[in-house]
Amino acid sequence: MTSIKQSYIVDGNDFISCGHASEAVKRTLKELGMPSDLIRRVAIAMYEGEINMVIHAEGGVADVEIFSDGVKIYLRDHGKGIADIEQAMQEGFSTATDDIRELGFGAGMGLPNMKKYADEMEIDTEIGVGTTVYLGFKVR
Amino acid sequence: MTTKALVESIDATLYAPCAKDNIDAFYVGDFLSRVMGKAPSGCAWITVMNNINVAGVGVLADVAMIVLCEDVHPAEDLIERCKTENIGLVSTKLSAYEVCRNLK
Ligand SMILES: Nc1ncnc2c1ncn2[C@@H]1O[C@H](COP(=O)(O)OP(=O)(O)OP(=O)(O)O)[C@@H](O)[C@H]1O
Ligand SMILES: [Mg+2]
């Protein structure tokens, strides 16, 4: 089966207006005529991951693969890593600073949202080395 | 309720027109991730958060209209972005609670 591959660089300095990669993917999925439920789930979960790479790491790369029946996304950064994944996955847990909270981020709901909207999620992280988040979506 | 009735009932200033004539889903909140987790598709989102990321969240979460309350007026970049994305953007003096009291 053929698939469409896209790769986006997520700029770690641009936390005033991040989300370009997720918005581009959303547009592509719309153009391909994918179901709107899938598009919304992918767009939100990917945006959460994109924002996390900007806020908690120094940016990274988002690799997206689109199939006729789903989407796979890999978000890779070389940031500080996540010390305790279980704790990070809890609703409300956040290490975001006050400046970040003023922008409206830092509710500690990003990773829980990714889990809620994706059908598959895996986090691979190492302190001081970086984090890779895999998100898998299937047409429901 | 109709978008027109909503805008009139809260005496709002219109900054970007809403593409939908009717809105029957609403969400109140300021933390962006909470909005993305809970706001229903096609809703009016009532908030005091005023920056360009509000439009980003609006696009990704399929928000139909953003209602800025407590006399928060949108920045120029937020207005422009809402216009390009066909997301309604209004501002009212009322608090979020007072806005909600007017919803039907
Ligand atoms: N890519 C990452 N690199 C390093 N730490 C991360 C990364 N992603 C998440 N974290 C850690 O996990 C915590 C929880 O992340 P989550 O996305 O759930 O919440 P948040 O980003 O703090 O707030 P919100 O997503 O609600 O704006 C973060 O505060 C941060 O400490
Ligand atoms: Mg987050």
Verbal overview:
The complex is a heterodimer of chains A (140) and B (104). In chain A, 39% of the residues are buried. Chain A has one domain (4-138): Heat Shock Protein 90. In chain A, α2 (36-56) runs antiparallel to α5. Chain A has a five-stranded antiparallel β-sheet, covered by helices on one side. Chain A is globular and about 40 Å long. By secondary structure, chain A is of the alpha+beta class. Chain A contains five helices and five strands, in the order βααββαααββ. Chain B has a five-stranded mixed β-sheet with strand order 1-5-4-3-2. The mean pLDDT of chain B is 97. The longest helix of chain B has 9 residues, at 52-60. Chain B has helices at 3-9, 32-38, 52-60, 76-84, 96-101; strands at residues 13-16, 26-28, 44-47, 65-68, 88-91. With 104 residues, chain B is α/β, with parallel strands linked by helices. In chain B, 37% of the residues lie in helices and 18% in strands. Chain B has one domain (3-102): Udp-n-acetylmuramoylalanyl-d-glutamate--2,6- Diaminopimelate Ligase, Chain: A, domain 1. The structure holds adenosine-5'-triphosphate (ATP) and magnesium ion (MG). Residues 48, 51-52, 110 of chain A line the site of magnesium ion. Magnesium ion (MG) is lined by residues 48, 51-52, 110 of chain A.
